[in-house]
Write a structure and sequence with these properties.
The chain is an alpha/beta fold and 262 residues long. Helices cover 36% and strands 20% of the residues. The protein folds into two domains: 189 residues, Glycosidases (TIM Barrel), CATH 3.20.20.80; 64 residues, Chitinase A, domain 3. This is GH18 domain-containing protein. GO terms for molecular function: chitin binding; chitinase activity.
Length: 262
């Protein structure tokens, strides 16, 4: 779609029509992920044309311009300094970007050891929310256009040895059915039903629980509160969650709101 002018125009026009017909405030693009320099260039072109079309539509309709945002990798480049996001086009065209600061570890791509799925800090490893935020700011993005991602779900592993149950413990793939993912509300049920042991790691800022050989990494209220306080302290625009449907009676959402307003 992003490669050709005609298909970009078709996408842009239809997206604006969709937003207006449903009285949306704006549109969010989720491209996971532009993975080479050509795709990054096309991504920037799409955003530039999208913004221009939104401005033109607002003038003709007399309505408030639609907000535009995008979900992006937590880093400003695709795992190589030669494949960088088009920072200027993003800054000029989008109202904010949602940093996907989660899925750092999961049984599908790191099956042999447990890990913090969404660590805020992680000494000795680049995969952390803080590293992502600092990298985007260093690349030229304003902190006021950055939104920190919070996962309302976790990932499970099957421990090799139930007595070795900390972070980075030996594991053998997912600990639960399917791909090993589990919503926060289901995690709370699992902890109660299995009398699982809960741990909060203040250094990394992550939660995990274990029962027998099943190990689950996730974010609980203390991790969420710490991350939201971090986002506010760094002067970020805010935070977002994927996804609110997995919350447990609004426990994480309420804690985040309380922390941001404190």
């Amino acid at each position: 779609m992003a490669r050709q002018s005609s298909s970009r125009k078709s996408f842009i026009d239809s997206s604006i029509k969709l937003a207006r017909s449903n009285n949306f405030l704006g549109l969010d693009l989720d491209w996971e992920y532009p993975s080479d320099s050509t795709q990054m260039k096309n991504f920037g072109t799409l955003l530039t044309e999208w913004r221009a079309a939104v401005v033109t539509e607002a003038k003709s309709s007399g309505k408030t311009p639609l907000l535009l945002s995008a979900a992006v990798l937590y880093l400003p480049y695709y795992y190589s300094s030669s494949v960088t996001y088009p920072i200027q086009a993003i800054s000029n065209s989008l109202d904010w970007i949602n940093l996907m600061t989660y899925d750092f570890y999961g049984p599908g791509w790191s099956p042999s050891r447990t890990g913090p799925p969404a660590a805020l800090y992680n000494s000795g490893n680049l995969e952390s929310g803080d590293n992502g935020v600092r990298s985007w700011i260093q690349a030229g993005m304003s902190a006021k256009k950055l939104v920190l991602g919070l996962p309302f779900y976790g990932w499970s592993w099957r421990l090799t040895n139930s007595n070795n149950n900390g972070l980075f413990a030996p594991a053998n793939g997912q600990g639960l059915a399917g791909d090993g993912s589990i919503g926060y509300n289901q995690i709370k049920q699992y902890i109660t039903q299995n009398r699982a042991t809960k741990v909060f790691n203040v250094t990394v800022v992550t939660d995990y629980c274990y029962s027998g050989t099943t190990w689950i990494g996730y974010d609980d209220t203390q991790s969420i509160s710490t991350k939201v306080a971090y986002a506010k302290g760094k002067g970020l625009l805010g935070y977002f969650a994927w996804h609110v449907g997995a919350d447990d009676n609004w426990a994480l959402s309420s804690k985040a709101l309380q922390t941001w307003g404190a």
